[in-house]
Amino acid sequence: MALIALAADKGAPGVTTTAVALGAVWPRPVLVAECDQAGGDLVYRLPAAPPEGQSGGGMLNPSRGLLSLAATARRGLRPEQVAEHCQRLVGGLDVLVGITSAEQAQGMTWLWGPLGRAFAGLGQVDVLADCGRLGAGTPLLDLMREADLVVLVTRATLEQVAHLRERVAALSEGLRGGPPIAVLVLADPRDFRASVAEVDRIITRRDGAGHPVGVLGGLALDPKGADLLSGQWGGRLDRSLLVRSAREVAAGLTARADRLRGERAGAGPAEPPPVPLLEEGRL
Ligand SMILES: Nc1ncnc2c1ncn2[C@@H]1O[C@H](COP(=O)(O)OP(=O)(O)O)[C@@H](O)[C@H]1O
Ligand SMILES: [Mg+2]
After folding, report:
1. Which residue, judged by its Cα, is nearest atom 24 of ligand 1?
2. Which of 144, 140, 198, 135 is nearest to 166 (CA)?
3. Ligand 1 pocket check: which of 17, 186, 283 to mutate, most ligand atoms within 8 Å of Cβ?
4. What is the pLDDT of residues 41-67, one digit of tens each?
5. Rounded to an integer, what distance in angstroms lies between the CA atom of residue 107 and that of residue 123?
6. What's the pTM?
7. What residue owns the CA closest to ligand 1's atom 8?
8. Selecting from 1.25.40.340, 3.40.50.1220, 3.40.50.300, 3.90.230.10, what CATH number does the domain 3-280 have?
């Protein structure tokens, strides 16, 4: 089903946290795949679901994931191979654990295109691919071209947004003819709507293929919620601002990805210009 690539331009705005928060509340079956070339973090952050019949959480196996998949995929990669390399977190979210060091990524540049096609070809599962930080000419472009939508995660600071605007321009060129780009703002809940609107004002443009590029919504900057995400899923986390805002973003993203798929298949109207999702101010 849908493949959504999440990435950042600079720094560590919160791509991995966003991917996990969205995955945790995604309205249909989903896989969070760690494709960050700098190495994955999930193994260190999140507990694996215990074997059936046991309680507690164990450690994710760092050798089962992207590395083991790459080792078997040299001669071609079929979508149905992906599931064998996934693991389940406490709480039930399925993940594909990333590489453990940036050095490993050097021999894997061939993988990203086939991996993107395999993700996009998964029948009943959406994929949220954490693509980490994008540099110029990143080989992850090959994966992103297969996505339905590329989502760039940013904080609302002026310097991050200014850099992001440059990255959007370069990425639009790199993805020409590929998926549209949208921006997700991690914003302070105290001035949430104003921050999201301000970033939208700076970013909104049309890319080289005439796609509208703009802000698709905001996720709450919520340190307590972000910390809780690395522990057990519980009532407090469920009510956190981070998770509540993630629900809204997840609903908007699935709807948009479906619409884009429909358009590409020749059905449905052209996508309307992006509007911030949180018009209702429900946070
Ligand atoms: N929505 C959020 N609210 C508060 N803190 C966050 C949020 N998202 C990320 N963080 C914090 O920012 C830091 C970087 O997050 P991470 O998700 O690893 O970023 P990236 O994947 O972009 O490197 C972590 O300390 C994390 O707890
Ligand atoms: Mg990360």
Report:
1. 14
2. 135
3. 17
4. 999 999 999 888 887 778 999 999 999
5. 29
6. 0.92
7. 14
8. 3.40.50.300
